[in-house]
Design goal:
Number of helices: 12
InterPro entries: SAM-dependent_MTases_sf (IPR029063)
Shape: globular
Helix content: 25-40%
Pfam families: Methyltransf_23 (PF13489)
Structural class: alpha/beta
Number of strands: 10
Distance between the termini: 62 Å
């Protein structure tokens, strides 16, 4: 059976627009509806849990001894995550992207790097609010992303995750235009070939970018190479995809690769051998309801405009299926040797 014949069997209708009656179609034709049921019940649970979180208007930053770790429901319910969400003017919702923002800022704060006069460089920044927030604190920031022509070729522009100009990084609710222009600059950078001009920063970061460099090996090399941008004792914070359920198979040599426990252990050992400090690796993935909710396609950008306008307000998850592999975010914290 060739591909076309198989696809004909999977169609919902035959050439006469009648129900496609065959054993394979009969078994599989309700899978999409079942996926939507799963998705939206999970989203409703996430919304209900977020609505039940206490109002915490007077929080202050506090040390928690943050480790290198995956995102969890407990993290998102914590005071430290709520504090950083408040700093970014975003609600606490159970979304892994928001966890990444909070993780990165908590890691830097615990290392006394969120203060005026510091210098930071972000890789693959896209439209994230971090540069504007850092600028509001008097920190000089270099925002980097792929050049627009390369981004379009890799599909990033289509998902609105690419910084074509500094306008995409400016968030007026976080910083004045004057402060932003004073502290933030844009550089087009290929993360597989970091230019030597990027040097002597106090910290660097990337948020779910290094899994898009072409392979697991390239992602791990980037983590090590990113330390070249730092002063001695500088700090790198990187988040990426974590295939937490399958230790035998994963995705590699693809536009989005999935790292496993062994890869984080390997890069930690490599960096420690070079004298760098890697925050303790904690692989606990949580055991609360949203830790066990694994979102599945279709994603919001895959929906029709009509369906998106009616059902596209969800998209709240800590874990999701990527090419069939349950995945979540994992954050690494590294201090360059002094």
């Amino acid at each position: 059976m060739d591909h076309n014949e198989l696809m004909a069997l999977l169609r919902l209708t035959n050439e006469s627009a009648q129900p496609n009656i065959n054993a394979l179609s009969f078994r599989l034709r309700n899978l999409d509806a079942m996926a939507l049921n799963l998705k939206f019940f999970g989203y409703e649970l996430a919304k209900a849990l977020a609505a039940g979180l206490p109002h915490r208007p007077d929080l202050a930053p506090a040390p928690v001894g943050l480790k290198s770790k995956p995102s969890t429901q407990a993290d998102m319910e914590s005071d430290w995550a709520a504090y950083w969400c408040g700093q970014l003017n975003i609600p606490v919702v159970f979304h892994r992207k928001i966890w990444e923002f909070a993780f990165m800022l908590q890691a830097l704060w615990e290392r006394d790097l969120l203060k005026e006069g510091m210098r930071g460089v972000g890789f693959g920044c896209g439209t994230e609010p971090i540069p504007s927030y850092l600028a509001s604190r008097g920190i000089d920031v270099t925002v980097t992303d792929l050049a627009p022509d390369e981004s379009a070729g890799r599909g990033w522009s289509n998902t609105n995750q690419h910084t074509a100009t500094l306008e995409h990084a400016f968030k007026s609710d976080l910083v004045s235009r004057e402060l932003f222009d004073r502290h933030v600059r844009l550089a087009y950078v290929d993360m597989n070939d970091i230019p030597p001009a990027l040097r002597d920063y106090d910290f660097c970061w990337s948020i779910c970018a290094l899994e898009h460099l072409g392979s697991i090996a390239k992602g791990l090399d980037f983590i090590q190479n990113s330390l070249d941008t730092l002063k001695p004792g500088g700090v790198a914070v990187h988040t990426t995809e974590f295939n937490f359920l399958n230790d035998q198979e994963t995705i590699d040599n693809w536009p989005t690769v999935l790292f496993q426990r062994q890869h984080f252990q390997s890069i930690a050992e490599r960096l420690r051998m070079l004298g760098h400090d890697v925050a303790e690796l904690d692989f606990a993935i949580g055991n609360k309801p949203l830790d066990r909710f694994i979102d599945v396609p279709p994603w919001e950008h895959d929906m029709t405009d009509y369906v998106r306008s009616n059902w596209g307000d969800g998209h709240v998850h800590l874990k999701l299926s990527i090419d069939g592999f349950p995945s979540t975010c994992f954050g690494l914290i590294i201090r360059k040797r002094a």
